[in-house]
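Hey, can you fold this one?
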Amino acid sequence: MNIGIDIRPLQAETKHRGIGKALSRTLRPLLKFGSASGDKFTFFYDPLLAMPEIATDAYIKYLPVRTPNINKKKYIRILLRPMKKINIKSGVVDVLLQFDFGLGILKNIPTVTMFHDMIPVLFRQADVDRQNAKKTIRRIKGKLGDGLNWQRYLSDLRKYNNAASILAISENSRNDLLSYDKKIDPSKIKVALLGIDSVLDAKKRNIENEIVKKIINTKYLLYVGGIDTRKNVIQLVREFHELKPNYPSLKLVVVGKEFELFNNLENLGWHKEIDKIPEYKKDIILPGYVSDFDLQLLYCHAQAFIFPSLYEGFGMPLLEAMALGCPCIAYSNSSITEIAGDAIVLVESGKSMAQEIKTILDSESIRRDLIRKGVLQYKKFPWENTARIILDEIHSISKK
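Sure. Predicted structure:
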């Protein structure tokens, strides 16, 4: 059969987020299993954007979905979608796999689509409050863009009813969608837990980021991820400030492309929180976006991975940390409890994590035990399982 895959999430900013990571890591085993079954693949891409690196020996056909350049202009993109919705004639492919529902769920071609989370709905008020905190001109532009995006999101969310099958990335996400939309047939939604790449690239010896070179030889706590409201990154600074008097050499390292967005951090109150204790400021390190290899090294050398998120569709950074021998501390909420097992120290949402972090810093035996449990836990989530579930669902849909 001919399986269509919309790979544009690998060309947009989503490539740095969970959607992009999920698609990129699922593709390789999916193509491998599909090719072995005699499947052919058609990738739909935006010819005006850089192509992602997709290493495969499978036969792949490429078809363009062209978004006009004007959609990507700085101010126009507030009014228009940054990417055109996919529109394919019947018969071009047998089934379409869509990782980003905002890029289109088709009626005329059976579509298997992934469902990630209900974050925009659950944290809507927090987003509104953040816009209100901006300065006047940016607040007006922000409110306009946010309002339009919100209406688009609600419209897109209703399109899940068009899908032939929905694969939620966690049981928690599945339950959230069913609670939100009573019209969706529960039998249409299955769970396809995401997975994790575990291999450190031993062939690549050179550290690319000069900051990373210095960091890995120090004692530090690590956070990797975004900065939107539910990520609760201000809590990282508060935990660090509480711990620092007892651990003078300790550093806090926060990694992610969004930490390069000064204005967004300003709106969150990040700088204000850091400035409360100026003498600790130099030990809060923001290397921004780093290569996969450098990121893996940061996980390997960290004392602990701190994850104060208030909600996760899946929680991939926790699996990444466990896979690379880094003890994890997180809040007990949403899908995090589904992947934690006994390998992650869980704290009630919103509470201080300082005591649990202190325990790991002070006890090498507890730290080693968490590392051992984490290595066992992450192995329950191989990407091959995710790819197999997706491919089986695609084959099942094509036979109906």
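The domain at 2-195+383-398 is CATH 3.40.50.2000 (Rossmann fold). Let me know if you want another pass with a different chain boundary.
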